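Hi there,

I know you've been waiting on this one. I reran it after we fixed the sequence typo, so this is the corrected version. Both the input and the resulting structure follow.
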Amino acid sequence: MHTALNKTLASLPDDTKIYPGHEYTKQNVKFLTTVLQTEPVKKLQAFAENNEQTQGKFTIGDEKQYNVFMRLHVSILSPSRPLHSSQHKLKPSQDPTVQKATGKTDPVDVMGRLREMKNSM
């Protein structure tokens, strides 16, 4: 899962649209809010609450902002840029909030702990 998300998918251009096979956004937001309380997560939550379907509305760049499974080694987007902006400013970083939530620092261990946390919801 770590390789698929953080190496394969993360290497795609940030403007690549996401078309998941199922509607996961509303369920995922519930979990995301237990780990991250960032502006991108709040925007995603509001979008999910106001839209029945979300497939094809978000990009890889958006996912890098709020998908905790993709924030093990991330390029954090400038908070001054809205979701869907083509002018994101990237800054390489690790997300200490995700690490703190899991109590782990190794990316594979963080991923494993996140999965356990989500499965227990």
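Quick highlight: The first helix runs from residue 2 to 8.

Best,
R. S.
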